[in-house]
Specification:
Blueprint (H helix, E strand, L loop, with lengths): L1 E5 L5 H10 L4 E7 L3 H13 L3 E6 L7 H13 L4 E4 L14 H29 L4 E5 L15 H21 L5 E7 L17 H5 L10 H12 L10 E4 L6
Parallel strand pairs: 1-2, 1-4, 2-3, 4-5, 5-6, 6-7
Length: about 250
């Protein structure tokens, strides 16, 4: 059995990733901060695909939550092979508008939470060897600046930190065959009932800044995540794969 933990799995990219990797002989620990109905819906889809399911809740901005998620997953299934660190949020306030508390919240929920999870997962990943995978979901906000593209300073710093930590971990774990990569989505369509960082009425205008002239779909990001989690991606590590319709060209 292969054991996979996906954070932020109740909707959007996380939910799509769970559906993309769900299969017999696979156990998925699915995390959400508080959207239990969404999490249960995704869990049902995973079970229907033949996978085992563990549902977990917790605010990753709180110290210790990331460690607990890994420990509970490993305790339930007796192993831990894959971490998909997806949970996060966007803060659009500019420098001078965002305060220290909000800045710290972005770093805590994304960079520090990722640090906690990979620290707790590292012994399990080493044991998993060539089956071990870490995929962290970054964002275009850590790469695309100017050209009329909106800026997310706190989120950009948090995601850039995730990418740097992922590269350091990739070098550390490479001798054992474990791969560590990031996926950086561009503007992605949200679920109909989900929170959108960009007001929906501005989507058409924002699309003009994207070479492909459209938002991406969650499943398009999930397909890349699933590939990086697979055996076919065994020689790819330390990379950030952009799924953004050419936004950062």
């Amino acid at each position: 059995m292969r054991v996979i933990l996906i954070t932020g799995a109740s909707s959007g990219i996380g939910a799509a990733a769970a559906r993309a990797v769900a299969a017999p002989n696979t156990a998925l620990a699915l995390h959400a901060r508080k959207n239990r109905p969404g999490l249960e819906k995704v869990g049902s889809a995973v079970a229907a695909a033949g996978g085992e399911v563990l549902l977990l809740e917790g605010d990753l901005a709180h110290r210790g939550t990331g460690t607990r998620l890994v420990e509970e997953t490993a305790a339930k299934f007796g192993r831990f092979d894959v971490l998909v660190s997806n949970a996060g949020f966007a803060d659009r306030r500019l420098v001078g508008e965002v305060d220290r508390a909000a800045w710290d919240a972005s770093l805590a929920a994304m960079t520090s939470a990722f640090f906690e999870m990979v620290t707790a997962a590292k012994p399990w990943l080493v044991k998993s060897g060539a089956q071990g995978r870490v995929v962290a979901v970054s964002s275009f906000v850590a790469h695309a600046f100017a050209r009329g593209i909106m800026s997310f300073p706190a989120s950009a710093a948090a995601k850039a930190g995730v990418e740097a930590l992922a590269r350091a971990l990739a070098a550390d774990l490479a001798p054992g065959g474990v791969t560590v990569n990031c996926v950086a989505p561009g503007f992605i369509e949200k679920d109909a009932d989900g929170h959108a960082a960009v007001p929906r009425e501005r989507m058409a205008k924002v699309s003009e800044s994207i070479p492909m002239r459209r938002y991406g779909k969650a499943v398009e990001v999930a397909n890349v995540i699933a590939f990086l989690c697979s055996a076919q991606a065994s020689y790819i590590t330390g990379q950030t794969i952009h799924v953004n319709g050419g936004l950062t060209l």
